[in-house]
Amino acid sequence: MATVLKVFDKWKEFLAERVSQAGHAGMSEETIAKLAFQIGEFLSNKVDPENEQERLLKELWDAGDEQEKQTIARLMVKLVDKG
């Protein structure tokens, strides 16, 4: 279980770095949210979840309509954007 959490924490750390870089590059929150949505679509369609957290996110993503997916994307950005 600790390994799974470390992997998920690494993924969140990676996402946080990318969100920070996008903000420093002058991208608006709306643009960052749109990119997060596009990344979510790509991951859902092309990447097999490797742990329970990723599987849960995929299942939530797949169950949602477009507006709900946009909410998930915004929440993921908010989750990692602590600055």
TrEMBL record:
A Pfam match: DUF3243
InterPro entries: DUF3243, Uncharacterised_YmfJ, YmfJ/YflH_sf
Name of the protein: DUF3243 domain-containing protein
Organism name: Paenibacillus whitsoniae
